[in-house]
Amino acid sequence: MSNDDNNGSRDRRRSDGEDDAEDASPDREERTMPEGSQDGEEPDGNEQTDDDDPWRSPGSTIEETLAGNGESPGETFDEDIDEQPAGGDEQLSDTHGENEEPTIDDLGSDVEIDAEIEDDPDPEDLLGGLKIDSTEEINIPERLVDQVIGQEHARDVIIKAAKQRRHVMMIGAPGTGKSMLAKAMSELLPKEELQDVLVYHNPDDGNKPKVRTVPAGKGEQIVQAHKEEARKRNQMRSFLMWIIIIVVLGYALIIAGQILLGILAAGIIYIAFKYASRGSDAMVPNLLVNNADTKTAPFRDATGAHAGALLGDVRHDPFQSGGMETPSHDRVEAGAIHKANKGVLFVDEINTLDIRSQQHLMTAIQEGEFGITGQSERSSGAMVQTEPVPTDFIMIAAGNLDAMENMHPALRNRIKGYGYEVYMEETIEDTPEMRRKYARFVAQEITKDGRLPEFTDDAIREIILESKRRAGRKNHLSLHFRTLGGLVRVAGDIARGEDAEMTTRQHVLAAKDRSRSIEQQLADDYIERRKDYEIQVAEGYVVGRVNGLAVMGEDSGIMLPVMAEVAPSQGPGDVIATGQLKEMAQESVSNVSAIIKKFSDVNISEKDIHIQFIQAGQQGVDGDSASITVAAAVISALEEVGVDQSLAMTGSLSVRGDVLPVGGVTHKIEAAAKSGCDRVIIPESNKQDVMIEDEYEEMIEIIPVSHISEVLDVALEGEPEKDSLVDRLKNITGSALNEGASVAGPSSPSPQ
Predict the structure, then answer these.
(1) How far apart are CA 732 and CA 749, in angstroms?
(2) Residue 495 has what pLDDT?
(3) Which three-class secondary structure string do you get for 455-517?
(4) The pLDDT value given to residue 231
(5) Which of 227, 263, 314, 325 could make an S-S bridge to 384, C-beta 3.0–4.6 Å?
(6) At what angle do helices 457-471 and 481-497 cross, to 10 degrees?
(7) β strands within 192-311, DSSP E
(8) Element (DSSP H or E) covering residue 668
(9) What fold, for 151-217+290-424?
């Protein structure tokens, strides 16, 4: 299948989707015209009176030129611009019915997939009962808000905010749909309210240009009319100038006989006329904001914008005197807050804006208008200050959780007081409906790219399975669509490189290896280098050495050997760990010390416990997910009992010996398998979170545990010593083992 065929099929799918959407919404024909537009009249926002005529700028004579044939100044001009096509109520209603666009009131209904769906889908069916052969059979909704998947709460807030013109702050991880929702809001806002902004020369004070607003599309007409009038005036001046020069030269040459005096006089006349013509050029307004060709409400992304790009600026003029200067109103530049008027201003990573810009942003939100001045104190534009320019925008601020720390408190308070705060979910419950929506997500990514082959049903299943793996939470799907979209594109590129008609499951599997993150590549290289230098031990028994597991980044794991040694202390006992891991090691030892004090005859307060995370540094180790690893290593060193080196483990630990859930178990298990381990211990509560790849299932045995005694029973060497130690531990902890499941069950995973 060629790329043209793919694009053609996608266009057909969109057409079918439009027909279905029209059939599903019978109320779309019963639209009401905007208020004030009945009986063929233009809405009030487009009406214009002589008293508020934007053409009547100070010093302008354009009305006299346009008022020929005895008409009053401004009449012909207003009629030319404000005149609308005739046709009465009937023509208006017909046009409105044919080109009807959905309004905000139409939103909220789910877009159905045009494919057969099983009534009672099998829970194991990754397509959620969707009967398709490829993504070619899936319809894509036209409206961006209908393409949003998973973020139902945020979607509802965006719709409400668009109706009521409220500000929104969205906080969440990257790639969860914040910018997509912001763009969707701009499609929901009415276009009829858009305005053009003009800046005029102020004859009273050149450093305070005047500002006028007109309905969208009329700004270009006004500027063109002013330019035409200025051109005609210049032509008249030029014609008059050359007549005078010819007369002067003729008089000097023929009558007076003073040719040099005539040439000098002609030069003076030429310079005088050119200098005088600059005044007419200054009367042409500067079209600051032009919405003539805007089809939807403006959407401006001001992420990382400097002060001039965000708030507007006035260009520096190197020629500030001598008749060579540029009029101040021609040097004014609009900022994102002005271009977003009647639309949406989106600022991601809001905390990266400097405090001064955040303060000015607060003023623009509060007042609905903001004057433009030069942002550099060394620029001549710093002396220019325009009249207030409209900034009636809806602001959508976004960022990660740390964005709130460096955000100006007053700005956040203003957004919260005039709008909503939304937390973007990172996972969503795995249901048949959501699986069907994920299939639509794959189709949306193919349509957005425009160059990818269609995906087969097995390829879609593999994408959904990868979403389950990346969620890291049982019965949930990941909402990190940006990274999943990257996987879709890489798989499509592989299929296209092979000239395949369809993207298959094998292409997706190849893409998963080819699209590994930097952390995954580093982790794999890290494991290989350790094998070369025999740093990792995957066989035999060693006292005080345990193979722990950790994660790097979000989607990769590494095996982390931990070694412990107990020695007499010359003073109070202490926990001695390498580098910046001391705090975590102390926490792990503190958790297990209560148990050790009960079952062991050794007084650990008189011992120094040395703990080493071999070649770990700080990267990849965080939280207390290595608690059972440290505890097992310390107990092994105290009792001098060897630990099985073909075993790896991860889990948090309570002071009563309960093994608590942790995050990233899937990636940790895969890291253990890559490192050559035969078995791995994980918390019982994480058992349903395991979603390892098929290639690792036969390589490693997974052992869920709920108490430290179970960990020692599996990991320690020697039947007499081990049995005695485990029995003592069980007897001392008593009911802790029986209550372990209930304690660990509702707990949330600790950091990796």
Answers:
(1) 27
(2) 95
(3) EEHHHHHHHHHHHHHHHCCCCEEECCHHHHHHHHHHHHHHHHHCCCCEECHHHHHHHHHHCCC
(4) 82
(5) 314
(6) 150
(7) 195-200, 210-215, 286-289, 299-301
(8) helix 665-674
(9) Rossmann fold (3.40.50)
- HSE at residue 479, side-chain half, CA atoms within 13 A, is 22
Q: How far apart are CA 644 and CA 545, in angstroms?
A: 9
**379 catalytic, yes or no?**
no
Pull the structure tokens for residue 339.
């271009």
Residues 477 and 469: their CA atoms lie apart, in Å, by 8
User: What SS3 state is found at 269?
Assistant: helix
First to last CA, the chain: 46
CA distances (Å), 357 to each of 107, 309, 352, in order? 35, 11, 10
Number of H helices, E strands in the chain: 24, 29
Tally of CB atoms within 10 A around 402: 11
Complete DSSP assignment for 598-610:
HH-SS-GGGEEEE
- Options 178, 342, 468, 668, the catalytic residue: 668
Q: What is the dihedral of CA 389, 394, 395, 401, to 10 degrees?
A: 170
Q: Which fold has domain 535-744?
A: Ribosomal Protein S5; domain 2 (3.30.230)
> Of 471, 589, 436, 580, nearest to 115 (Cα)?
436
pLDDT value for 26: 37
Residue 77: the pLDDT is 38
Cβ atoms within 10 Å of 699's Cβ, excluding its own: 16
- Pick from 605, 712, 611: which is nearest to 653 by CA? 712
Residues 6+ apart with CB under 8 A from 588: 624, 626, 627, 629, 630, 631, 653
537 vs 542: CA distance, rounded Å: 9
Contact (CB, 8 A) for 733 and 657: yes
Q: Which amino acid makes up residue 290?
A: N
Q: What is the 8-class DSSP label of residue 327?
A: P
Q: Which residues of the chain have pLDDT under 70?
A: 1-116, 118-119, 276-282, 319-324, 530-538, 578-586, 588-589, 598-602, 615-624, 719-752
The ranges assigned to domains in the chain are 1-31+100-150+427-515, 37-93, 151-217+290-424, 219-284, 535-744
Q: Which of 467, 625, 706, 750 is catalytic?
A: 625
Q: Do residues 546 and 715 touch, judged by C-beta distance below 8 A? A: yes
Contacts of 145 by beta carbon, 8 Å cutoff, 6+ apart? 107, 155, 158, 159, 181, 184, 185, 187, 188
- Residue 668 appears among annotated catalytic residues: yes
- Interatomic CA distance for residues 594 and 653, integer angstroms: 12
| C-beta separation of 650 from 628 below 8 A | yes
Strand-strand pairing, 556-568 and 541-543? unpaired
Positive or negative: CA dihedral 222, 223, 228, 230: positive
| Cα distance between residue 163 and residue 601, in whole Å | 71
Distance CA 323, CA 15 (A): 60
Q: Tokens for 63? A: 């009305």
Domain at 1-31+100-150+427-515: CATH code: 1.10.8.60
DSSP string, 719-743: HHHHHHHHHHHHHHHTTHHHHHHHH
Spell out the alpha helix ranges (H) of 99-217.
Answer: 152-164, 178-188
Q: Are 227 and 259 in contact (CB under 8 A)?
A: no
* Torsion angle (degrees, nearest 10) of CA 665, 670, 673, 677: -20
- Beta carbons of 173 and 289 less than 8 angstroms apart: no
Identify the three-state secondary structure at position 147.
Answer: helix
φ and ψ of 562, to 5 deg: -120, 130
Task: Measure the CA–CA gap between 299 and 340, rounded to whole angstroms.
Answer: 6
Question: What is the pLDDT at residue 125?
Answer: 86
Asked if 296 contacts 191 with a C-beta cutoff of 8 angstroms, the reply is yes
